[in-house]
């Protein structure tokens, strides 16, 4: 193997590890800021692509009371429809970024 290939492989693996640790930090170290209410704009169920469970996780697009439209992480979309009001947990990552998940 050439030196250039080894360097490229090293940086590729480093990028994969950085993404993995970012995802773990988001899930493990985020703190709850509060609960907000919003109306569902779009429901995107999991897409299986002939695999079970789905490769793409389900996602909700929700309009908050202040008019902001946010993407909400969820596990299930069963029984949810556009226009329905739901409670959402507002989470804050250690570095200050805000994300939302469905309060189940």
Q: How would you describe this protein?
A:
With 104 residues, this protein is an alpha+beta fold. The chain has one helix spanning 3-29, and strands spanning 31-44, 59-64, 69-73, 85-92, 98-102. The protein has a 5-stranded mixed beta barrel with strand order 1-2-3-5-4. A hairpin with a 5-residue loop joins strand 4 and strand 5. The radius of gyration is 18 Å and the shape is extended. It starts with a helix and ends with a strand.
Characteristic terms for this protein:
37% strand
Question: Would you kindly provide a brief summary of this structure?
Answer:
The chain is an alpha+beta fold. It contains one helix and five strands.
Write the topology of this structure.
Blueprint (H helix, E strand, L loop, with lengths): L2 H27 L1 E14 L14 E6 L4 E5 L11 E8 L5 E5 L2
Parallel strand pairs: 3-5
Antiparallel strand pairs: 1-2, 1-4, 2-3, 4-5
Biggest sheet record: 5 strands, mixed, barrel
The H-and-E topology, N to C, reads as HEEEEE
Please provide the count of β strands. Answer: 5
Biggest β-sheet: strands ordered side by side in the sheet: 1-2-3-5-4
Structure annotation, total helices: 1
CA distance, first residue to last residue: 51 Å
The geometry reads as: extended
Helical proportion, percent range: 25-40%
């Amino acid at each position: 193997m050439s030196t250039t290939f080894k360097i490229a492989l090293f940086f590729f693996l480093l990028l994969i590890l950085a993404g993995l640790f970012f995802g773990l930090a988001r899930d493990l170290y985020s703190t709850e800021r509060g609960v907000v209410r919003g109306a569902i704009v779009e429901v995107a169920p999991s897409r299986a692509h002939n695999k079970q469970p789905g490769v793409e996780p389900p996602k909700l697009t929700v309009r908050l009371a202040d008019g902001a439209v946010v993407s909400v992480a969820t596990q299930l979309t069963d029984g949810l429809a556009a226009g329905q009001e739901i409670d959402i947990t507002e989470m804050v990552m250690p570095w200050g970024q805000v994300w939302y998940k469905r309060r189940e």
